[in-house]
Automatic annotation (TrEMBL):
Biased composition (Low complexity): 18-29
Gene3D superfamilies, sorted: Metal-sensitive repressor, helix protomer
Record-linked InterPro entries: Metal_Tscrpt_repr (IPR003735), Metal_Tscrpt_repr_sf (IPR038390)
Signal peptide stretch: none
Pfam family, one: Trns_repr_metal
Protein name per UniProt: Metal-sensing transcriptional repressor
Any GO BP annotation: negative regulation of DNA-templated transcription
Region called Disordered, residue ranges: 1-29
Compositionally biased intervals (Basic and acidic residues): 8-17
UniProt source species: Candidatus Pullilachnospira gallistercoris
Lineage, opening ranks: Bacteria, Bacillati, Bacillota, Clostridia, Lachnospirales
GO molecular function per UniProt: DNA binding; metal ion binding
CDD domains named among the record's database cross-references: CsoR-like_DUF156_1
Length: 110
């Protein structure tokens, strides 16, 4: 089901452990996919640099840029998750969602 408030929105349902789940809309799906495609392209360019025998310092700088891009994608997903998934889940009484969020944050910042 499309959300007319957010033309690039994506709706899905979470099935949390021990709950009936909840449904919500992600507003940044298109942005996340675009950023992922750019990061993938950047990684392919880094692979080409390695294959071409480019200077290690240049390769490391590009790897740092890719890591930053991936981190920013994760931050965007986390922001969207908190604003939509977590808020919706708590409103629907899905307390397990908070434990799942804490686990996801711990793994993301590791």
């Amino acid at each position: 089901m499309a959300n007319t408030d957010y033309p690039n929105a994506h709706e899905h349902t979470h099935e949390s452990r021990g709950t009936s789940g909840h449904s919500h809309t992600h507003t940044n799906t298109k942005t996340v996919i675009n950023r992922m495609n750019r990061a993938i392209g950047h990684m392919e360019a880094v692979r080409n640099m390695v294959e071409d025998g480019r200077d290690c310092s240049e390769v490391l700088i590009q790897i740092a840029a890719v890591k930053s891009a991936i981190n920013n994608i994760g931050k965007l997903i986390l922001q969207d998750h908190i604003r939509h998934c977590v808020v919706d889940a708590v409103e629907q009484g899905d307390e397990q969602c908070l434990a799942d969020l804490e686990d996801a944050i711990n793994k993301f910042i590791k």
